[in-house]
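Let's practice the habit of predicting before peeking. Look at the sequence and jot down your guess about where helices and strands might fall. Then scroll down.
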Amino acid sequence: DGGFGGEPPPKSVRVRAPEREPDWVVRETTRPEQALLYRLSGAHNPLHADPAIAEKAAKVTEGRPILHGLCTYGYVGRALVREECGGDPARLRSFTGRFSRPVWPGDTLVVRGWREDGRVLVTAGTDEHPEEPVFANSWAEVAR
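Done guessing? Here is the structure:
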């Protein structure tokens, strides 16, 4: 929220998905208990597990615990490895993006990829909230 002083960070490069059908689409449903399982990784933010805390942050969470960003990132990364790397994670050279909306446990993620200018542009949304991406401004570099 700012207030730290100093110069603002540089603007990130904006990447938009092409206005054509994606080269591939991967659709996977997250598990309803997945946010609780991610607590085992050491991420103990109550926003992912405690309905009372999620209710206090209803502006973002719609009053429900949300999935960890790391979990969403993992689903998108797995789709990239499957579709672009032939299942070999060593071929995924870099992968970046921006979380733009929460995902809720049990949502179905829809990951779309476009091969463009030597990299792969990626977006992810959900079937439950198709009007807004949950992961955008994203691309990956893959060893061919």
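How did you do? The mean pLDDT is 92.
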